[in-house]
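DM from R.C. (forwarded with permission)

"hey, sorry to bug you on a friday — could you get me a structure for this? deadline for the figure draft is monday and I only need the backbone to look sensible"
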Amino acid sequence: MIIGILGDTHDRADATAAGVRALRDRGAEFFIHAGDVGSEAVLDQLAGLSAVFVWGNNDWDRMPMARYAQSLGLTCGGDMYRLTLDNKEIAVTHGDSDQTVRKLLEGQSLDYLFTGHTHVPHDRRSGKTRWINPGALYRARHKTVAALDLATDRLTLLTVNV
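My reply, with the result:
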């Protein structure tokens, strides 16, 4: 399974649409948004897809957005969400809480941890856990998303032109 990872869209529906297109072109079947969604217009770009998102520190209207996401069939994971895909244990959180990130990494129960927040892509290992930040689709020198093939553990960082 290939998953598409994006984050820090900050209400930029056009950039989100371009990021989702790039990920779909790479074969993404499941989408994870690592927070700072920003608006319902961004959620519209995920409508009809298998997707989950978490809140970021700039997501202000959470309850209305959560209700809207539910109406679209999207999963709102709150501040932190755990899921299993292809027998891989995954957690996603925005990354603005160092304590949450530290606990998730120290637990060593995860195969993958996805975060956003810094607007800078990274791919690191902490013991068993591979910690991935896809970058950002807003306020980033290069707007990026990431495609991860869970079968091969291959990560591809994609530059999105908007």
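R.C.: lifesaver. The mean pLDDT is 97.
me: no worries. The longest helix spans residues 13-25.
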